[in-house]
Design brief:
The chain is of the alpha+beta class and 180 residues long. The chain has one domain. Helices cover 27% and strands 36% of the residues. The relative contact order is 0.21.
């Protein structure tokens, strides 16, 4: 018989929360995929796949068997010169694979979306298409990188996920390996 603690482990809760959020985002709002111009092949000067352990500007914020999350040390979180709540860099099996950016507010959302369109490609606006709503999701796909922006207007909360297309699927694989 499994004990109650194993059913409610932090990893299991995060897995279930992630599935619920994904379902809500897929069913609740517009979703657009854009072929990315100018694939960044990483984030700033950090290429996908490199280890982040020896970078002095980073500090570990969470670590488990297969994944490690980092934040920039002694630096306010910004993305494209836009103040944000947090910027987390993540590795899977010691390889840099994902950046998660969290922000709040309609103004920040507008600035982030404008930056992404200017840098990676404009969203095609078709006649009659709604570009705002309770939940929005936009995706830019490059050869090595995928960038997804999600925004929940009712909570005024947005996320930008910048991921290696080759390494990011390992996050789900590793969570499945450790689940009961």
């Amino acid at each position: 018989m499994r004990n109650a603690c194993s059913r409610w482990s932090p990893l299991r809760i995060l897995q279930r929360l992630g599935c619920v959020c994904a379902l809500l985002l897929l069913t609740a709002g517009p979703s657009f995929a854009i072929t990315m111009a100018n694939d960044p092949h990483g984030y700033h000067d950090l290429s996908w796949g490199i280890p982040l352990t020896d970078i002095p500007d980073l500090m570990v914020t969470r670590e488990n068997t297969h994944t490690t999350d980092y934040e920039f040390r002694d630096r306010q979180p910004v993305y494209a010169d836009i103040p944000v709540e947090s910027v987390h860099l993540s590795t899977v099996d010691a390889q840099f694979a994902r950046v998660t950016i969290r922000y709040r507010g309609a103004q920040a959302h507008k600035q982030v979306l404008q930056y992404l369109e200017r840098t990676y490609g404009a969203i095609e606006r078709l006649p009659g298409q709604m570009m705002r709503g309770l939940n929005q999701q936009y995706t830019w796909r490059g050869t090595e990188t995928e960038i997804t922006l999600t925004y929940e207007a009712n909570r005024d909360l947005g996320f930008v996920f910048i991921e290696s297309r080759n390494l990011a699927p390992r996050f789900q694989d590793r969570m499945s390996d450790t689940a009961e």
